[in-house]
Amino acid sequence: MLRIPKWLLIGGCSLLAALILFLAVPGGIKMVAAKPESVRLPAVMYHHVLNQSDMLGDYVISPKQLDEDLRYIQERGYTPVSAAELQAYVAGEGELPERPILITFDDGYKSSFVYAYPALKKYGMKGILAVIGIHSEYYSEIDDDNVNYAHATWDELRQMFESGVFEIANHTYDMHEESSPRAGVRRKAGESKADYQKALREDIGTNQQLLEMATGKTPTVFAYPFGFLDEDARAVLDELGFTMTMGVAERVNTVTRGEPESLRELGRYNRPYGVTTQSFFDPIFAEAEREAAAK
Ligand SMILES: [Zn+2]
Q1: Topology adopted by domain 38-294
Q2: How many angstroms separate the alpha carbon of residue 21 from the centre of ligand 1?
Q3: In angstroms, what is the span from residue 107 Cα to ligand 1's centroid?
């Protein structure tokens, strides 16, 4: 059997096809192998943005820090892209900018509406907001709009979506619990596969309906709570129409034209407080550019 070195498989099937073509050509050297067309895609994950110095931490940064981040992203020549652009690219349509980046905000906080939305607008940028349905439902029904802990209301989600600044992702209706028995969207101990998939279908499907009612569009992006993955969740996510999913593994993604699978379980870098903009972004950009150059 022909043993193919692992590094040759990194580019996936199209590179393998190119290799086979190469081997099939007499002499080989005249062959101009078609490289799979792909882009390196760093993704940043934010949570809260608050003007409260005593709350800053791993999941809370200040509006000033966010502004500096966005300015730096622009200065370094990166262009935030939408899920729709990425989905078109992997389907073989449309182009992506030379240095794409994905900007995401998890959990659907009101602080995304109050701080992140105007900041992205200011720079003409776009992002993805991953919403936990039960919280947005709750804060849409009660009279408590404290930005320190409230979540965005349906009306705020609609405004952000209609502006074109934010695409809305599904972050489960009520499965955003880190500890057992379930831990995010994982299968519980002793739960049958059928029961597990039914529970997911109900929860995530409920959020799909609520978000569709709020914005007029059914989400196509799913963010795994805490990045907890489960192989048996995939079939349900496919069934519910998700063509892009995001985890929390800190790595730069490679997105390949003609390979929709390359939008599965995208890695994202969590942006904590207490690190300067440059020391956070420089290693990520170096990684994205190093591998892009090595293609
Ligand atoms: Zn989350």
Answers
A1: TIM Barrel (3.20.20)
A2: 45
A3: 5
Tell me the DSSP string of 128-145.
EEEE-HHHHHHHHHSS--
**Residues comprising the chain, all counted:** 295
Residue 44: half-sphere exposure toward Cβ, Cα within 13 Å: 26
Count of Cβ atoms closer than 10 Å to residue 31 Cβ? 15
Domain positions in the chain are 1-36, 38-294
Tens-digit pLDDT profile for residues 217-237: 999 999 999 999 999 999 999
Helix (H, G, I), strand (E, B) or coil at 104: strand
Residues with CB under 5 A from ligand 1 (ion): 106-107
- CA–centroid distance, residue 273 to ligand 1 (Å): 17
Q: What is the pTM of this model?
A: 0.87
Give the DSSP letter of residue 60: E
Q: What is the mean pLDDT of the chain?
A: 90
* Ligand 1 centre distance from Cα of residue 225 (Å): 5
Q: Is the four-CA dihedral 231, 261, 10, 98 of positive or negative sign?
A: negative
pLDDT at 7 over 60: no
Runs of H (alpha helix) within 25-98:
63-75, 83-90
Which residues, listed in sequence order, are joined to residue 80 by a DSSP beta bridge? 101
- Residue 133 Cα to ligand 1 midpoint, Å, equals 12
CB count in 10 Å sphere of residue 257? 19
Plot region of 107 (φ>0 → left; ψ -120 to 50 → alpha; else → beta): left
